[in-house]
Amino acid sequence: MNGAALIRRIRNHFDWPLFLTILGIAAIGIVNLYSATRAAPVHGLFEAHIRFLVIGMILFFAASVLDYRIWLRFSWVVLFVGVTAVVGVHFVGVVVKGSRRWLGYGNLRLQPSEFVKIGVILALARFVHDREGDDLPLVGIATRFGAFVLTILMIAWQPDLGTAMLVALICLSVMLLAARRIWPIAVGLGLAVAAIPFLWSYALKDYQKKRILTFMDPSTDPSGAGWHARQSIFAIGSGRLGGKGYLHGTQNQLNFLPEHWTDFPFSVWAEEWGFAGSIVLLGLYLFLILWIVNVASQARDRFGATLCIGVAAMVFWHVFVNIAMVTGLAPVVGVTLPLISSGGSSVLTLFIGLGLVASVSIRRYVQ
To answer: What is the pTM of this model?
Structure first.
């Protein structure tokens, strides 16, 4: 098949429901971010978000046109490069608000731990693919499990508890759905539970412990660590059924909501658009996740199916943790809301993952 014919077939089988859902969520994100930054003491953040959306769209189309099976050979290499970049942050990383999580120069900064999610998903898909014939030795399984655990620990070391937790949840979700035996997962969960006292004593920073303790009882520090959750709950509740109206959210416009362009954009949306608007946004996320699972069920091979499950898990856990965080059901750990929160690395990572899903979808019909 020549190049022109291949492009024509890709265009004919392009996954329009996936793309239009992405556009719908991204459009809500643009509208919401404008409101969140309109009276906030930040400059150029809205314009930067638009630029990252454009770059993300380019990456989405590039990933969708490329055959996803190309990445089968390089899955572990991608993960290795990502983890190396995470380690490199400790030596040459840029410090922002007291945290060293970014690589870059000047205003150009990227967060390697975000892109590691794609490496983890690719490596998980390769792991499941290699086990298709059930001939992977126990040593090989243990080595690969060790690689995922090491990745999570390297991210937590930054420290970036939120991203480390998300990577762990993605790994657990994929393994639960793809596992043929439950005992390796049970052993892993047992070891994770046994490690909690050690992590609390030696791994978690004081501010992370404070967030967890405040989550358990926000009244212990209502003007400090508990302020974020309380103001977010006030904003969501005050939106009621139809919201206060666009650009009329008082918690948002008066800057009572902290970091409402990154961690708390759902609170902005719920305050201004109410329960009805929240249902529309959550409905779009639900459709997106179910559509990705549908693509996984029709994929040509286990590698493609597991890729889709990994991306679906990434989107689901981002939405679940962020919504739980802003409604006071989980500690504030800095997890973004997909395509709604401002954050260049997060936006680009999501578009790459969704582009891989689009590639799997197209390859159901195109060789």
So the answer is: 0.90
